[in-house]
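User: Teach me something about this protein's shape.
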Amino acid sequence: MVVDSFIDLLLVNDVLNANPAIKAARERVPAAGLKFHVTALICQQTGGPCENTGRGMKEAHAHLNISEKEWQAMLADFRRVLNNYGVPMQEQQELLAIVESTKNDIVVRK
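Assistant: First, the predicted structure itself:
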């Protein structure tokens, strides 16, 4: 449910949708596919039995030209979902640390 809500918010995020590369990618990749890959990644990174079989973060995001502003918009949505589901602060910090560990592979330094 957390991933579903998170992806649903990302899909309607005006900051992200203003990036033509992100908008085009969303038109190519169905929401269900994105939810599957994000779920597998989180499951794997948190020690679960899942294995992320998708492309690496750098490869998957290189063509999207994601800015710091877009990264921060994504983080705001992620925090909002975690708070809405009552995820305890310690677990939120652990999840945010996992997400932050991917930043250098996702955000384009200008």
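Now, about its shape. Residues 2-106 form a domain with the Globin-like fold (CATH 1.10.490.10). The chain is about 70% helix and 0% strand. If you'd like, I can walk through any region in more detail.
User: That's plenty for now, thanks!
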